[in-house]
Design brief:
Layout lengths: L3 E2 L21 H43 L6 H4 L6 H10 L3 E6 L13 E7 L5 E4 L1 H6 L5 E4 L5 E10 L4 E5 L22 E6 L7 E16 L2 E8 L11 E4 L4 E8 L1 E2 L8 E5 H15 L1
Antiparallel strand pairs: 1-13, 2-3, 2-5, 3-4, 4-7, 5-6, 6-7, 8-9, 8-11, 9-10, 10-14, 11-12, 12-14
Length: about 290
């Protein structure tokens, strides 16, 4: 029976290099095997193709007549099907510049690092260059130094302003020269089930990654580590390394901080992710910044 587990490691073992196919063989070897198999199957496919041509001719003529009777040309409906919502494109363009990669302890850009290092994401919350991220990233970094990498590749050693393990949130700060654009925050209580959202961050070290989904549930009671949380549930793809990054709505407003994924047998995202609600994030950030400056 499959076993549900919680948050994955900052870099999961299920990541496969683009040069390998899923079973680990070199892609060229897999392609050669595929060509051999195709040569043995061509005769059967040829017969099938004749049948498809006949069927397509009849059905195409019928469909073309129906579309023409409605004042449109054949192909127009297919070409315009499921367009990417313009508001999500705009939201992504506005969000990515304010999202950073967080490297804690011995972590580096090429891997999980040494000495218990960890990687994750974060985002600017104000014009004072304060950055929100997850506390568990810093905890896995073993209390070592924290580096923030900007979208343009610049790196800064970050000051840890404060941490609150119970809410799994932490606040960092980088020098004013970083020039990060703060992300707008959604108003408390405005997140709705079914609304489209984007998860932005650095899953598996791939900075600036944007995935889309919807809000699957709000006020979801979940256990994260040793603490219970009220979370926003989403089916936007969240993977190790997304932790600490923003979940934003179609207006580009942050509705939560991506924190955890449900997994089965540790095999990565299964479409059930959790974010700390913006109400909790704002309250905790204000408290930490108020104490730490």
């Amino acid at each position: 029976m499959a076993v549900q587990t919680g948050l994955g490691e900052p870099r999961g073992p299920w990541f496969v290099s683009p040069e390998l196919d899923p079973d680990g063989r070199a892609r060229r070897e897999a392609e050669a095997a595929a060509r051999d198999g195709a040569a043995r199957r061509w005769r059967g496919r040829l017969l099938t193709a004749f049948a498809v041509i006949v069927l397509s001719t009849v059905s195409g003529a019928t469909a073309g007549g129906w579309v023409a009777s409605r004042g449109g040309a054949p192909g127009e409906t297919a070409a315009s099907a499921a367009p990417v919502p313009a508001e999500l494109v705009t939201a992504a363009e506005r969000t990515v510049p304010g999202v950073v990669s967080v490297l804690a302890g011995g972590a580096g850009t090429g891997g999980a690092g040494t000495g218990g290092g960890a990687t994750g994401s974060g985002f600017a919350i104000d014009d004072q260059q304060h950055i929100i991220t997850n506390d568990h990233i810093l905890a896995k970094g073993g209390g070592g130094s924290v580096t923030v990498e900007l979208p343009d590749g610049r790196r800064y050693t970050a000051e840890v302003v404060g941490r609150e393990p119970s809410s799994d949130l932490a606040v960092l700060r980088v020098p004013p020269s970083a020039g990060l654009s703060p992300l707008p925050l959604a108003k408390p209580g405005t997140t709705r089930v079914g609304e489209p959202v984007l998860a932005v961050g650095s899953p598996l070290g791939l900075a600036g990654t944007v995935t889309a989904g919807i809000v699957s549930a709000v006020d979801r009671q979940v256990r994260l580590g040793q603490n219970r949380h009220t979370a926003v549930q989403t089916d936007a793809s969240i993977n190790p390394g997304n932790s600490g990054g923003p979940l934003v709505n179609a207006r580009g407003e942050v509705v939560g901080v991506n924190t955890a994924i449900a997994t089965i047998d540790g095999n990565g995202s299964i479409g059930i992710g959790f974010a700390i609600p913006i109400e909790q994030v704002q309250q905790t950030a204000d408290t930490i910044i108020g104490k730490g400056g």
